[in-house]
């Protein structure tokens, strides 16, 4: 009888030891044994999207861009601006020609027509797009796009057709502005038309020539005495010819 009782006591003691060991193994480590750094849970997709939507970065010009544009991803959407060029010079015999530093080819605008022009932002950190020829689709990498302008034998260099740092530029965003901006060449005056209103940028040089020399009735086949008439505003570029 004593042997059976002893066996029961040993069996009971073994079960108690097993239960205690199991409880210790399953219990969390004490606070002192923890590293002090808790694992962070991944945010839910909708929460992450909301955080990205509200996240903005500010560039050196004080403009605020979505943080997602800073990611090195070809899928990032680049901000594009639109500033058309309109010819109201009122002369059907001539067109305005432009040779610009953002394009390898010339382009022109006939009287009474408008040429659509778009430019990628140079301040937006999204990756710039390139075509198969290696050219930037829009923009020269500089905030200002200048051109050589030709019209009826008149040539001016350094004519600005777009400047992302214009006060009106932010309203010229495609999908973000109220309407496309445009440069209107009319009566020798260049006017920027934007959602915020109109602003005269300057004048273009149109020389006036006469074939009448010394009262001989204009029989000479070439012009003499070409002059530039007085104009109200500074020229938008430099007179070449």
UniProtKB/TrEMBL annotation:
Q: Which residues form the signal peptide?
A: 1-33
Keywords assigned by UniProt, alphabetized? Signal
- Which sequence ranges are marked TM in the entry? none
The record's listing under Pfam families reads:
DUF7771 (PF24974)
Residues in domain DUF7771? 144-239
This protein is called what?
DUF7771 domain-containing protein
Q: Which organism is it from?
A: Hordeum vulgare subsp. vulgare
User: What's the source species' lineage?
Assistant: Eukaryota, Viridiplantae, Streptophyta, Embryophyta, Tracheophyta
